[in-house]
Task: structure prediction
Amino acid sequence: MSEKITPYKDKNRSKKEQVAEMFDTISGNYDGLNRVISFGIDIKWRKKVVRLVSKTKPKRILDVATGTGDLAINLSKTGASEIIGLDISSGMLEVGKEKIAEKKLDTIISMVQGDSENLAYEENYFDAITVAFGVRNFEHLEKGLSEIYRVLKPGGIFVILETSMPTKTPYRQGYKFYSKTILPLIGKLFSKDKSAYSYLSESAAAFPYGEAFNNILKKIGFIEVIDNPQTFGVATIYTATK
Result:
């Protein structure tokens, strides 16, 4: 994916800085807006991710680009004793901390501000690592994936949920229209940051998916790489191991 796709088209700031600012700005209404944009289907996709992780009976889980912690909260159902939700945006993390405290999960889930490309954990530390709708926001995709590979235990599971492009007619045409026209419009109506949902749409359209993304994961060193398209291909769940 081209690194030129950034939220604010500011050449003087890194993509990381712009992404952090964008998510800080929209953090307050991010959850509600996401339910509207995805028609609530993202809840079903996250449940599938949890089921895949649960099968491996992990003790330590890292949820990268955790946002407001939706997936981290769901992952508590795996029985893991330690779940770390990591994100670059302090605004998103603060919303997540409130949700976790309300559910009395703060003894299991820790929300940590950090950079996916420079993880502060030792090699082979986590039994499972997840990313939901976050890898396309990495400034350097392969560097971020390499860091995830480093901290994942051999035999551990890596699960990614990310947007993708439907390949069949008329779903492909319908998705393009929705993502380019409807999604940014909804974002402008509900969010004070008019650039945010245009960026999310553009970055989703440009991100490699299916076999192209499988090949990147294999290049990093991941094995047993599988992609499983969801809901006519508008999203894909990828699984891999080390």
About this structure: The chain is about 45% helix and 20% strand. Residues 171-190 form the longest helix (20 residues).
